[in-house]
Design a protein that fits this description.
Largest sheet: 6 strands, antiparallel
Strand content: 25-35%
Distance between the termini: 53 Å
Order of helices and strands: HEEEEEEEEEE
Radius of gyration: 20 Å
Number of strands: 10
Shape: globular
Number of helices: 1
Number of domains: 1
CATH class: Mainly Beta
Structural class: mainly beta
Length: 152
């Protein structure tokens, strides 16, 4: 079965939409330029519990601009086994959801920091949490990794 409208304008819209859909927002030129990488050196590390929290869930959360990478210094001294990130449209308050997809892609994690990238066209506020047993160590530091994420 083939879908063809008898309306030429509708046909043009369907064809244009079908051609542009795979491109995503950034390919259409309507995505803001990303900011330089941002280092987050705040948060609470409880080494005895093996936990790190960048901010309380209710805030104030850190800015997470579109097309920008954040570097969180966690000071755990080991690589956490569990990391979570949460986003909101507001700096403070209870309107928070768990990060999914490319709005919060984990780029790297090591014994000192983890790196999170917002690869969307939308600005957010973010907080992250991490925990671990203290027995896992990354094979190399994030700063030493190649562009493909592998260790030298």
């Amino acid at each position: 079965m083939q879908f063809v409208s008898t309306k030429p304008f509708l046909n043009a819209c369907l064809i244009l939409g079908g051609l542009c859909a795979p491109l995503g927002c950034s390919e259409l030129g309507n995505c803001p330029e990303g900011e330089p990488d941002i280092s987050i050196e705040t948060g609470v590390t409880v080494a005895t519990a093996g936990t790190y929290l960048s901010a309380p869930p209710w805030g104030p959360r850190d800015r997470f601009p579109a097309k920008t990478t954040l570097h969180f210094k966690h000071e755990l001294g080991f690589t956490p086994e569990s990391m979570q990130s949460f986003v909101s449209f507001t700096k403070e308050g209870s309107n928070v959801s768990e990060n999914t997809g490319n709005q919060g892609a984990w780029v790297c994690v090591d014994d000192e920091k983890f790196v999170l990238r917002n690869d969307t066209c939308q600005d957010f506020y973010v907080f992250v949490s991490a925990s671990g047993s203290g027995t896992l160590h990354a094979p190399c530091r994030c700063a030493d990794r190649k562009d493909d994420g592998s260790c030298p």
